[in-house]
Design brief:
Layout lengths: L6 E5 L5 E2 H7 L6 H9 L4 E2 L2 E2 L6 E2 L4 E4 L2 E6 L1
Helix pairs in contact: 1-2
InterPro entries: S4_RNA-bd (IPR002942), S4_RNA-bd_sf (IPR036986)
Protein name: RNA-binding S4 domain-containing protein
Pfam families: S4_2
């Protein structure tokens, strides 16, 4: 049985951040263009569900995953 990769906690310094911004801010992806493409292609999961809305608002506790890496939104 394999263990899932660790989830990095990323403090956003507030209550809300948009999905596209969080992907770059957390380091899960390198650029806005890369984030836009990954979201459009259905490669990004929010709380274990595909989400294709780049402007989706994330709140503390939400977990974003892409490419086998995950990050949890922290205030």
């Amino acid at each position: 049985m394999t263990t899932p990769p660790p989830i990095d906690d990323v403090s956003i310094g507030g209550d809300v951040i948009r999905l596209g911004q969080f992907l770059k801010f957390s380091g899960l992806l390198d650029s806005g263009g890369e984030a836009k493409e990954a979201i459009a292609d259905g490669e990004v999961l929010v709380n274990d569900q595909v989400d294709r809305r780049r402007g989706r608002q994330l709140h503390p506790g939400d977990i974003v995953s892409v490419g086998g890496r995950s990050a949890r939104v922290q205030p």
